[in-house]
Design a protein that fits this description.
This protein is α/β, with parallel strands linked by helices. The chain folds into two domains: about 110 residues, NAD(P)-binding Rossmann-like Domain (Rossmann fold); about 180 residues, Rossmann fold (3-Layer(aba) Sandwich), CATH 3.40.50. It is built from eleven helices and twelve strands. A seven-stranded parallel sheet has the order 8-7-6-9-10-11-12, with helices on one face. Helix 5 crosses helix 7. The longest helix is centred in the C-terminal third of the chain and has 18 residues. The chain is elongated and about 70 Å long. The two termini are about 30 Å apart.
Length: about 325
Amino acid sequence: MAKYVILPPLDDMRREFARRLADTVPELDVVAPETDEEAAEELKDADGAYGWVPPAALASAKKLKLLQNPDAGPFHGYYYKELSDHPVVISNPRGIYFDHISHHIMMFMLALSRGLPDWVNAQKESKWNKDARKNKYVNLPDSTVLINGVGGIGAETARLCSEFGARVIGIEPRSEIDSPAELHEPEELDALLPDADFVVTTVPHTPGTEFMWNADRFKLMKSSAYFINIGRGMTTKIDDLAYAIESGEIAGAGLDVFEIEPLPSNHRLWQMDNVLITPHVAVSDAENIPERRFEIILENVKRMLDGREFINIVDKDKWY
């Protein structure tokens, strides 16, 4: 009988996943150890697992074929050399957030393009001020949107932007992506930045994306352009971003993720009228995400038992 380990720390969702897997796939031995020590012991003869495997436990996990990463963009340190060298295949849940996060992006884009922060500030002061908007109105059908990372989230955002009539440029190394965006290689990013009215970055934190958004890149953008980060905070130097907005190099930003989380209460980004901030909540209240996550776990378990190729396979050296 094949064995699957739901790794700690256990919460209600992981316990429910373990119960459902055991009920749905009776030929699978599903265990959910409470402690790291128990998990290391269970991993010794496990075929698959959900969660994170520390290096010490991985060394004795000789049978492990599948490791299901709970996050498309996991915490720094999830991937390490021993994991890359191990024959285990890693899968992630990419694609399960596509609609929720793309809607969050559109919220930022529409609010910034119409000057909503300025109208809200006027409302707070009970001022009927028709001149409250400080930045030029951006008409979406006449705009160019550059999406850095055209995976599930980026592709859906490209579709929505196209429906508004915007021109969409996609930066994506995978040419097989189905998207209305004009796809370009990552090496073309700097040449395309001056064309964009909105720059949307959805990429995960990897060795290649860490702090890719910095002072040099912000200088390449239009002074009327907006920057939206919905991917991972460690892709963007927040002090460089703050300076770019303060100095007028770019018009503003919509941010759900940050280099430091929580964003320190004294950081000047909080006080900028042309910056919209949400505290990493783009999918926090989405009720269908756990079900989508379980469906990927279940599909890969079935493939593991049948000896078929897994879905959502990760390049362990690239972290995605």
